[in-house]
Design brief:
The protein is an alpha/beta fold. It has three domains: 6-95, Winged helix-like DNA-binding domain superfamily/Winged helix DNA-binding domain (Arc Repressor Mutant, subunit A, Orthogonal Bundle); 100-168 and 273-300, 3-Layer(aba) Sandwich (D-Maltodextrin-Binding Protein, domain 2), CATH 3.40.190; 170-271, D-Maltodextrin-Binding Protein, domain 2 (3-Layer(aba) Sandwich), CATH 3.40.190. Helix content is 42%, strand content 23%. The chain has helices at residues 12-24, 27-34, 38-52, 68-95, 108-113, 115-125, 138-146, 208-219, 233-241, 285-300, and strands at 57-59, 64-66, 100-106, 129-135, 152-156, 164-178, 189-190, 200-203, 226-230, 246-250, 261-265, 270-278. Strands 3, 4, 5, 6, 7, 8, 9, 10, 11 and 12 form a ten-stranded mixed beta sheet that branches. Strands 1-2 form a two-stranded antiparallel sheet. Helix 8 links the parallel strand 8 and strand 9 (226-230). The radius of gyration is 32 Å and the shape is rod-shaped. Mean pLDDT is 90; it is low at 1-7.
């Protein structure tokens, strides 16, 4: 038997036709199951046999029988189609959010102040989706999302150009934090000049908070001198409470009953936080639903001080 071109042979429709005929051992019943005419099924089988170069069936007027080659091919075809069916069902589960995996990269302010609310609501709606949260600095988030390690990232909008798509989520601002006994604690607003001579507690280099505050000092032609450098805003707040100095932080960190005084900065230093994702490709359903839910949480809750 001559071998036909590949385009005429191996297709899922032809393989399924063969499998149903092999199960029913009769074209009439196979035709009813498949919803195809008997001539169409015969054509599928002939094309499949021509492609494989072997006879799969012996046809008689009343029934069909599998050849030795047909029996062997049925084993392989059944195994392959079963695997394919599992994959199709799994993808449908992902699409319908019955199962899935979501990897989120976020700066600490989002992981501590926003994500807990969003994850609680998301878990209630989609309990079978496994969520991994990676807490990172902004520069690390860009790399993780670009390289596909994370489905999305939550981070401040960078000052320069970036290769990712950015969607605004929260418009935050910076504020000065001083001890409650500090003279500036009684002020409604302060300028960066007012704290230029104060012992300044700031984040470590590479932090978006540190970069933003230092850039603001430079724009206002004020000297930026850090007295203490720490890794976490919570540490800076504890040190301010201990009268070790003052700090400048986004107001998202400054909700609640804090043992410090928070004073607005004039002119304001804005901080826009949003969602980043790779450009071009569509978001997965799991990621798209999480972003939609997070946006709703932000609208409905007072997350900025």
């Amino acid at each position: 038997m001559s071998k036909a071109p590949a385009k005429a042979g191996l297709s899922l429709v032809r393989i399924r036709s063969f499998m149903v005929v092999a199960e029913e051992m009769q074209f009439r019943r196979a035709s009813k199951r498949l919803g195809l005419t008997q001539p169409a099924i015969s054509a599928h089988l002939q094309e499949l046999e021509e492609f494989l170069g072997v006879s799969l069936l012996r046809r008689t007027t009343r029934q069909v029988e599998l050849t030795a080659e047909g029996k062997r091919f049925l084993v392989h075809a059944t195994r392959a189609v079963d695997h394919l069916d599992v994959g199709v069902h799994e993808m449908r589960d992902y699409g319908s959010l019955q199962r899935g995996r979501l990897v989120i990269a976020a700066v600490p302010s989002i992981t501590s102040k926003v994500l807990p609310f969003a994850l609680e609501a998301y878990g209630a709606q989609y309990p079978s989706v496994h969520v991994e949260v990676m807490e990172m600095m902004a520069s690390e988030i860009e790399r993780a999302v670009q390289d596909g390690e994370a489905d999305m990232g939550f981070m401040p909008k960078p000052a320069g150009r970036m290769s990712l798509a950015f969607s605004p989520l929260i418009m935050d601002r910076f504020a000065v934090v001083v001890p409650q006994s500090h003279p500036l604690s009684r002020r409604r607003t302060v300028t960066l000049q007012d704290i230029s001579g104060q012992p300044l507690i700031t984040m470590k280099r590479g932090s978006n908070i540190r970069d933003s505050v230092e850039a603001a000092f430079i724009r206002r032609r004020r000297k930026f001198v850090a007295r203490f450098t720490v890794a976490q805003p919570e540490t800076a707040l504890a040190m301010v409470s201990a009268n070790l100095g003052v700090t400048v932080l986004p107001t998202i960190y400054l909700n609640g009953d804090l043992p410090v005084a928070v004073v607005a900065i004039e002119p304001a230093i804005p901080r826009e936080v949003g969602v980043v994702r790779r450009k071009g490709g569509p978001l997965s359903r799991t990621a798209a639903e999480f972003i939609k839910l997070t946006e709703k949480i932000v609208r409905n809750r007072r997350l900025i001080g």
